[in-house]
């Protein structure tokens, strides 16, 4: 249990934590930064021992800094643990959000691995959350950005209060590890930049200052950059790419030189890329990663020209906008889906229904199209023979029109015609639940009904909430009998008891079955199904409309 003075402890911890972060971000070298990270845990987070394990270029982890015990520091510093052993510990331990905890009771996890560790003895814990000397707590550090590669692991021991960290202690350690990863990455970047500057100064004394500045800006830019050929048979081929772009796409620089951006762009975005390349402008498109997935990027081209010879190459800036696109998709989902049930809302329902309909009324016998070609929106023959005089730009046709006309069964008998059934569902007795038990109970009923309807239809069918206690199901490829069977099956699911606010309630359901047909609007289709629902509702005795 945390003490009553926790708010004061938190404020004090925040002050120490702030001081520790300030110190590790002002360290002069990578070694100083690593030691400052370890010292900050002892000073600011209340642990007696702290160790920073850093990933080496070969993938293994070396003890780079130790704080809290000079004898243990002399014993531990410089020792190496294999990557496989570390990954085993991090995967088998208890996951505390971003931390990994291995209690002393799970010591078998530590068997037969080569991770450097100190051994201390102590009695068994006297209470549940007391810290045991053999407990292990790790805070993995990952490189900033989308790649998220393992940078190192902070390990701590002996909390001064003798207890396993609570929620606040865990969050503080996790936040500290995140900031430490940034500080270490920045220190590495500064070290790399210093080494590069020295090397460039030694090897490229003859280069102009502007070329040196360009190289530094290109190589160490936080976002992706590439240089591509302009003009000729290999127009667009990537000549050079920086580390940020290679990490973003998961491809080494040597492999990037085999591609042009047109090889990497999503097929749907090729036209956007070509227009951007020609205009030297900006576009948002998707590029392929090595694992086959696509990442949204903002791509900006600049034409780098030579005053004597004209354009020479394209300088391309690539910014990762995956997170922003994800938020945009979330906002679009919220706009098109009901916030309570998560089902498509009325606007989305009308959009999906309208997408299946066209304004061309089907003539002939019943709702059958005039010919197989007419069913797909292409009148291959006119009354006078071959007829090629139709216009793709007319309202009935898109530039590449593949519309399949929607037809409906004729009358109430099942004539074998398969169509797009529109089932209009209205709950019976729902208002009384709202009135008697409150809106929370009513919301629980709506959520459960939405779940049962979704589970009762096929993949590809649409279940939408029209509003209030009204739902609509779009089910394609059904005949009259199929639609009736579906309505009966869904009604039987709905009438089962529902747990709401600690009590069992029941609602009934009335279904009206309408059929979508080209030549109708979405509102006309919904109105037809709504009218059939009310006919069906009135046809049953009032006492039978509710399930109970």
TrEMBL record:
InterPro entries: Biofilm_reg_signaling, GAF, GAF-like_dom_sf, GGDEF_dom, Nucleotide_cyclase, PAC, PAS, PAS-assoc_C. It comes from the Bacteria. Residues 210-292 form the PAS domain. The keyword Iron does not apply. PROSITE patterns: GGDEF (PS50887), PAC (PS50113), PAS (PS50112). Keywords: Coiled coil. Residues 186-213 form a coiled coil. The keyword ATP-binding does not apply. This is Diguanylate cyclase CdgB. Residues 418-548 form the GGDEF domain. CDD domains: GGDEF, PAS. Residues 281-333 form the PAC domain. It comes from Streptomyces thermoalcalitolerans.
């Amino acid at each position: 249990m945390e003490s009553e003075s926790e708010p004061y402890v938190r404020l004090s911890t925040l002050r120490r934590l702030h001081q520790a972060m300030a110190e590790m971000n002002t360290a002069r070298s990578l070694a100083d930064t690593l030691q400052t990270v370890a010292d900050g845990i002892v000073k600011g987070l209340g642990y007696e021992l702290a160790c920073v394990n850093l990933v080496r270029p070969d993938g293994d982890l070396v003890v780079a800094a130790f704080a809290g015990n000079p004898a243990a520091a002399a014993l531990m510093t410089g020792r190496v643990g294999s990557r496989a052993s570390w990954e085993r510990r991090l995967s088998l331990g208890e996951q505390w959000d971003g931390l990994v905890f291995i209690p002393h009771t799970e010591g078998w996890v530590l068997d037969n691995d080569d991770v450097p560790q100190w051994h201390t003895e102590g009695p068994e814990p006297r209470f549940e959350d007391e810290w045991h000397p053999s407990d292990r707590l790790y805070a993995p550090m990952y490189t900033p950005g989308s790649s998220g590669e393992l940078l190192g692991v902070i390990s701590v021991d002996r909390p001064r209060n003798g207890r396993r960290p609570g929620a606040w202690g865990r969050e503080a350690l996790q936040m500290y590890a995140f900031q430490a990863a940034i500080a270490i990455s920045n220190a590495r970047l500064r070290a790399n930049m210093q080494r590069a500057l020295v090397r460039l100064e030694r090897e490229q004394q003859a280069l102009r200052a502007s070329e040196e500045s360009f190289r530094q800006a290109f190589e160490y830019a936080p976002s992706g950059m590439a240089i591509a050929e302009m003009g000729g048979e290999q127009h667009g081929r990537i000549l050079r790419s920086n580390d940020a772009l290679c990490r973003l796409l998961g491809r080494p620089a040597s492999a990037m030189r085999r591609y042009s951006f047109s090889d990497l762009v999503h097929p749907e975005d090729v036209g956007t890329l070509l227009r951007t390349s020609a205009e030297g402008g900006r576009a948002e498109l998707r590029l392929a990663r090595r694992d086959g997935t696509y990442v949204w990027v903002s791509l900006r081209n600049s034409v780098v020209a030579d005053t004597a010879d004209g354009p020479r190459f394209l300088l391309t800036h690539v910014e990762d906008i995956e997170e922003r696109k994800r938020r945009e998709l979330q906002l679009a989902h919220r706009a098109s889906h009901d916030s309570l049930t998560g089902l498509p809302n009325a606007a989305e329902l009308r959009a999906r229904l309208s997408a299946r309909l066209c304004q061309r009324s089907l003539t002939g016998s019943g709702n059958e199209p005039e010919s197989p070609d007419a069913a797909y929106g292409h009148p291959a023959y006119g009354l006078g023979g071959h007829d090629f005089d139709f216009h793709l730009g007319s309202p009935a046709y898109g530039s590449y029109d593949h519309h399949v006309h929607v037809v409906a069964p004729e009358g109430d008998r099942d004539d074998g015609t398969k169509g797009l059934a529109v089932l209009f569902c209205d709950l019976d007795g729902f208002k009384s639940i709202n009135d008697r038990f409150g809106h929370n109970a009513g919301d629980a009923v709506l959520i459960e009904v939405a779940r049962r309807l979704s589970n009762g239809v096929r993949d590809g069918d649409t279940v939408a909430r029209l509003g209030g206690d009204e739902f609509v199901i779009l089910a394609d490829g059904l005949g009259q009998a199929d639609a009736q069977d579906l309505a009966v099956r869904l009604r039987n699911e709905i009438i089962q008891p529902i747990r709401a606010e600690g009590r069992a309630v029941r609602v009934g359901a009335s279904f009206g079955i309408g059929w979508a047909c080209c030549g109708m609007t979405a509102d006309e289709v919904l109105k037809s199904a709504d009218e059939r629902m009310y006919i069906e509702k009135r046809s049953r005795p009032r006492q039978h409309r509710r399930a109970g």
